[in-house]
Amino acid sequence: MLRQLRYADFQMLAIVLLLCTIGALAIYSCTKSDLAAAGRPATAKLQLQLAWIVIGLGMLVATALVDTAKLRRLVWPLYIGVMVLLVLVLVLPGSVRETNRWISLGPVNLQPSELAKLAVILMLGAVVARVDEEKWDFTFLVKTLGYVGVPSLLILMQPDLGTPILLFFVWLTMMFVLGANPAHLGAFALAAIMLFAGAWGFGLIRPHQKARLVSFINPDADPYGTAYHLRQSLIAIGSGHLWGQGLFQGKQSQSAFVPDQETDFIFTVIAEELGFVGAASVLVLYGLLLYRGLAVSAAAATTFDRVVAAGIVAVFLIQIYSNIAMTVGLAPVKGMALPFLSYGGSSMVTSMMGIGILQSIYMRREQIVF
Q1: What is the DSSP letter of 96?
Q2: How far apart are CA 46 and CA 369, in angstroms?
Q3: What is the mean pLDDT of residues 308-332?
Q4: Cα separation of 244 and 14, whole Å?
Q5: Among 17, 45, 74, 105, which residue's beta carbon has the most beta carbons within 10 A?
Q6: Region 324-350: what's the mean pLDDT?
């Protein structure tokens, strides 16, 4: 089976490894001072991130070796298993910042909403693959949206507003790739906007979520509260100039002025210490990764493979945009990891599995379909 790996997309793998390396260096840079001050080894978080990268690479290889035809037969157990985890995260004790998003597994935490992204993509791919093209009508779109709605409701209860929005946009992308009527998709998008407006008006949107949106529209409304993250991020990015202040030399990063800088605001660390050149290099790497993913989708041998590949690319695109845009004030602040760069195991392993599925599709792109 390992012989199949010689047909892998090594350009994509090289891009992923480069991003992981940049992320690991940035994580070490912005955490070493605080860890040392707390009496812990300066490399504690770096070591854990490297462990997650190794585990993620193992999952990437394992996933790439699974034929997508076999993966398609496993979608229901995977989907139900993730739904069970989403229920467990709501009923098990323990919360972080008044949210219930993680399941504690000793020294590490599992975030089921990350796994839900892949589960939904695989389920949608399996559903559309067994339906004739002429039946992809409005009723069919409603049915497929139901597979997104169940996990989205469970995730909203955590509470987490960003991931359900991400899943909805992934659904839109996958249905567009299928060739769904753009007018139908536009109607669903309009309905989603109206639902959000209604939820806002009836107080269903949590106060902290409203505050983040208000701060996005008017950062001066609460500069030392909900807009503090953005203000500090802009200061750090602006101080990077062209070449940056130097690796491990960022004043904002080393002094921990930017909250959550090893997770949600890791791009800020890179922009401050490596400057415009470093930040632009990361954007180029992401652009190449998305391009390779789209090429995999275009060359896929089956409808299932094509739609799943498009869904994975959509997840990466939305996460990349949402994370980077919020650091420069082009999107509301949201706790969303930057793929392969942010500190954390659930995001790293899930992203690696997504790349593994793309590799599996790529390696079997020339198979004969009867």
Answers
A1: B
A2: 45
A3: 93
A4: 24
A5: 45
A6: 91
